[in-house]
Amino acid sequence: MSNIIITGAGTGMGLSMTKKFLANDWHVIMAVRNAAKAEKVYQELQDQYGDQVAMYQVDVSNGQAVAKFAEQVNTQYNQVDTVISNAGIFTGSLLHELSKEAWDKTMAVDVKSIFLMTKAFVPGMMARHAGNIINISSVAGLLGDYNMPAYNAAKGAGTNLVRSMALDYGQYGIRVNNINPGATNTPMFQGNSEEVKAAYRNDSPLKRIAEPEEIANVAYFLVSDQASAITGQNVGASMGYGIWTGQPKQ
């Protein structure tokens, strides 16, 4: 049974990916920021899958916490085959109104966590000459948006980081890819007003937003042997966001 770590696994896209991999006989190691909040869903998964699923509380933006997590995982399991860095936060503000603390937190959770998780688990993949790393980025990492300077900058860093990682680790048989969703029907998105949610749906070429399960399907494909030739890519799963030049309809 292959082992996968999924960060931000207690809700939204992370939870959908957890369920997708469990349903396909993977052993899933859930990394969550707040174990108490995720306890109910974890118990439900344990009732269905038993010791096929495990959960750890870890702040993936904190170096000491990730090092402790890696020590626990490497002691418990013989190897980690795939890491999906899904944990992330959204920060919206004009740049001059953004606090230093908000900027630093966005960079820590959305970028530094990828660095820390890779640093912790890629050596084992290198030793085995096999592995997959997937980072959940955003269409906001490919283009600019109004009132999202920190988020655009953080996701933009991930856009190029995946290429560098793919170049460096390909010789070890490790594939590295990003998934770039647009608006997705997660609890975070549902926190928007009905007007905002309708605007996102109407602006999509498909006239809807993505479901978390659809992002999970892309992740599962990228890890599979069917995607064996794919590395260093920013794979869009955005309902068509990012394909328009911005020019008016004629």
TrEMBL record:
Q: What are the alphabetically sorted keywords of the record?
A: Oxidoreductase
List the EC numbers from the record.
1.-.-.-
Any single GO molecular-function term of the entry would be:
oxidoreductase activity
Q: Which family does this protein fall into?
A: Belongs to the short-chain dehydrogenases/reductases (SDR) family.
**Name of the protein described by the UniProt record:** SDR family oxidoreductase
Organism expressing this protein natively: Limosilactobacillus pontis
Print the organism lineage: Bacteria, Bacillati, Bacillota, Bacilli, Lactobacillales
